[in-house]
Amino acid sequence: SVYLDHNATTAPAPEAVAAMLHALEVAWANPSSTHEPGQQARRLLAEARSRVATFLGCQPSELVFTSGATEANHTAVHAALAATRGIGRQRLVLSSVEHPGLMALAARLEAEGVPVTRLPVDADGRVDLAAAREAIGADVALVSVMGANNETGVLMPVAELAELAHAAGARMHVDATQLAGKAALDFAALGADLMSVSAHKLHGPKGVGALVVRKGFALAPLLAGRQERHRRGGTENLPGIAGFAAACDRAAATPAADIERIAALRDRLEASCATLPGVQVYGRRVARVANTCCLRFGTLDAELVLGRLERADVVASSGAACAAGGTQPSHVLLAMGEPSAHARAALRFSLGRDSTDAHVQQALAAVHAAVAPLLQDAVAAAC
Ligand code: PLP
């Protein structure tokens, strides 16, 4: 099928699969063991760490491997709050369009008494800097804002937010999960203290990611133990880490022209959809990652449209999350000021390195053959 859901996950690259198999079959010993097989695994771990660090623009010692971005995000928040507990700086500031895992953590902490501020976004989905200026004061422990939104692809003003955070004596965390592999990513230049990434969004395996921790920040672990310099307990997931490193190498070796190629495919897909009546594209007026297109076909329910597309062998996704009691409209679109009927209609095409001209052609054929008639019926019914 034509896979247009790369923001959800990507297929592991052959290089990543080969590196994982090698780690499973050859370097399977415990990197903490002092015997030779253990030391062989330890060398592989050190080598993978330095390759991932090079890709992310950080020092190898700044990298803490985790089970993915969700764990990295949770670690960042807990560690930042722990670091300032003694001095009463406990406010968490995040955007209102963060990943559901981080939104859920913020809600849980809030219920436990942690003051939380959710920054509004504008109609294009960018964090409102004026609101951030107001909110980031002397009681803030951490400002946590994603680099690019997973639903809209919109880039957030993280450098400006890092400046505001630091001016107020707070720390800055960037969830860069949707940036890695899609745009140049350089931790040193980002200005953040903490950064999360996940391997499976850049053709690496699932269940592995990293938290980058700026040198000098004594990170309290979420999982206590002596691995990762006492910053993350548990025997290292060496196959996952080796696959992650191979995926980073591959992403680093991909020419910048390929990002432009993906942007051109996305733009073609978007422009052709936009010729249909009632189509609205989100985030089009601001900077976005190259691969993401978030739009709605009038008020046609996203699930209905996705079903039609899937019958034509094209898979994409909606921003809506399935919750008990029904499908919830996307919190991202609601935060952008969209009414619930629009938020329920929003769907996302996300392209990847393996997307081709032919894929876009097939997706457009499906849109024009299977979705456009529904849209015309809806327009006729409204007249
Ligand atoms: N943060 C963002 C922005 C994401 O898009 C995702 C992907 O699902 C995550 C965090 C969670 O990553 P993981 O699946 O590695 O926990």
From TrEMBL:
Domain Aminotransferase class V positions: 2-362
Substrates-to-products reaction catalysed: (sulfur carrier)-H + L-cysteine = (sulfur carrier)-SH + L-alanine
Enzyme kind, highest EC tier: transferase
Cofactors named for this entry: pyridoxal 5'-phosphate
Keywords of this entry: Iron, Iron-sulfur, Metal-binding, Pyridoxal phosphate, Transferase
InterPro entries, per database record: Aminotrans_V_dom, Cysteine_dSase, PyrdxlP-dep_Trfase, PyrdxlP-dep_Trfase_major, PyrdxlP-dep_Trfase_small
Record-level Gene Ontology MF annotations: cysteine desulfurase activity; iron-sulfur cluster binding; metal ion binding
Domain of life: Bacteria
Entry's EC annotation: 2.8.1.7
Sequence similarity: Belongs to the class-V pyridoxal-phosphate-dependent aminotransferase family. NifS/IscS subfamily.
Protein name: Nitrogenase metalloclusters biosynthesis protein NifS
Record organism: Rubrivivax gelatinosus (strain NBRC 100245 / IL144)
Gene: nifS
